[in-house]
């Protein structure tokens, strides 16, 4: 392995899921739902498989899917992109992030990454051979907000891009418009682009509104928006994501991804297109279900004695196990599957410069059937 990737040799999701499988634990670590997406989507995939959609599709994605993506995005955000030049289908949001960074960032550029981060951001910056600069989120009055001073310090004339994620993994926070305005102001000042990971944009709770940084004044021209069918439609194993943005930025991502995967599994593309067109009610119901599951798991974790930051979005609850006597949250997470039969992920691997702020925390995923959460609750009682 090259030196720049050595720190990324394994991921915490790989490690925790391996332990969960080995000890037959309930996996509230890696975030994936335990029920399928809409039936009509599965049927559409089967039809496509049987109907001969089994050879290379166009590199940008099939036109039907690109049109459906643009329509979905317009309904969610008001943004209007050209399906021909401003929409690229990728192998999950993961490839979208990597392709955007590798295709748009030079070796001597800097990329601002806000901590805690989704782990693939730092690996993508390393693959691009660029320099990473850290900003941070902070806990403030029960919510999680951007530390604007840290962001300002992280930007410089060498900044090419900032990676933005809201609703935010791992914290479950939804960044308010004011925080996004601060990021946008720095993008304008330093002529930087935003790579905006919005894979949880459809999962906000308690009436909290998702704001895309691309909708702020002057930002549509300098933002790549990233989404994932995995999260929208409960099909994380299909690995279908997409990028939208101005043609010159999409072109950078398109160029890089041509040599990563070239294109995306053909029979799954018409199925996702079908679901984006016809299953918007299903997606709306998913949000209601997830909010109820968040409440259920929050009740369980509070009952056991964790301190919680209640998620306003995503699949994830941030929990502080210190009241249970835990002093090393990362080590504790690695023991939990064997000792209790439940898996969670520690925050430490999602940090680097600001580890001290976050490493006492752990993340529990609530995107599971109610009976599974209830069983996890019974097992976690052993900690109370
Ligand atoms: N970004 C965030 C914030 C995520 O949580 C995930 C994983 N769900 C991804 C990107 C990767 O998405 P995908 O599985 O579509 O590659
Ligand atoms: N995005 C999911 C999570 O945060 C899964 C990540 C992964 O398996 N790489 O849990």
Automatic annotation (TrEMBL):
Keyword Repeat part of the UniProt annotation: no
Domain Aminotransferase class I/classII large: 25-367
Keywords: Aminotransferase, Pyridoxal phosphate, Transferase
GO molecular function: kynurenine-oxoglutarate transaminase activity; pyridoxal phosphate binding
InterPro entries with a match to the protein in the record: Aminotransferase_I/II_large (IPR004839), Kynurenine-oxoglutarate_AT (IPR051326), PyrdxlP-dep_Trfase (IPR015424), PyrdxlP-dep_Trfase_major (IPR015421), PyrdxlP-dep_Trfase_small (IPR015422)
Keyword Transferase: yes
Gene Ontology, cellular component aspect: cytoplasm
Family: Belongs to the class-I pyridoxal-phosphate-dependent aminotransferase family.
NCBIfam families in alphabetical order: PRK07777.1
UniProt-recorded name of the protein: Aminotransferase
Protein species of origin: Dietzia lutea
């Amino acid at each position: 392995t090259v030196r720049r990737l050595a720190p990324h040799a394994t991921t915490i999701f790989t490690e925790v899921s391996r332990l969960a499988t080995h000890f037959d634990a309930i996996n509230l670590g890696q975030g994936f739902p335990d029920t399928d997406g809409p039936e009509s989507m599965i049927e559409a995939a089967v039809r496509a498989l049987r109907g001969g959609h089994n050879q290379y599709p166009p590199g940008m994605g099939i036109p039907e899917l690109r049109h459906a993506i643009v329509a979905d995005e317009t309904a969610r955000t008001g943004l209007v992109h050209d399906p021909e030049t401003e929409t690229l289908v990728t192998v999950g949001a993961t490839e979208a992030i990597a392709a955007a960074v590798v295709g748009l960032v030079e070796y001597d550029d800097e990329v601002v990454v806000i901590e805690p981060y989704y782990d693939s951001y730092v690996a993508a910056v390393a693959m691009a051979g660029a320099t990473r600069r850290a900003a941070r989120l902070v806990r403030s009055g029960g919510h999680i907000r951007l530390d604007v001073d840290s962001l300002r310090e992280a930007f410089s004339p060498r900044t090419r891009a900032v990676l933005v994620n809201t609703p935010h993994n791992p914290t479950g926070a939804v960044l308010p418009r004011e925080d996004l305005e601060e990021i946008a102001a720095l993008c304008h000042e330093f002529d930087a682009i935003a790579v905006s990971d919005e894979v949880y944009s459809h999962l906000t709770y308690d009436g909290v509104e998702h704001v895309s940084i691309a909708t702020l004044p002057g930002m549509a021209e300098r933002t790549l928006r990233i989404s994932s069918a995995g999260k929208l439609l409960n099909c994380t194993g299909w690995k279908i994501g997409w990028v939208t943005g101005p043609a010159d930025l999409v072109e950078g991502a398109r160029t890089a991804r041509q040599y990563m995967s070239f294109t995306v599994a053909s029979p799954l593309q018409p199925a996702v297109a079908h679901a984006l067109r016809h299953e918007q009610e299903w997606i709306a119901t998913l949000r209601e279900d997830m909010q109820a599951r968040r409440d259920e798991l929050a009740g369980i974790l509070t009952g056991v004695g964790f301190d919680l930051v209640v998620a306003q979005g995503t699949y994830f609850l941030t929990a502080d196990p210190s009241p249970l006597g835990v002093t090393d949250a990362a080590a504790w997470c690695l023991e939990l599957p064997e000792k209790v039969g439940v898996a969670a992920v520690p925050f430490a691997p999602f940090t680097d410069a600001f580890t001290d702020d976050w490493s006492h925390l752990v993340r529990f995923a609530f995107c599971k059937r109610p009976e599974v959460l209830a069983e996890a609750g019974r097992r976690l009682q052993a900690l109370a």
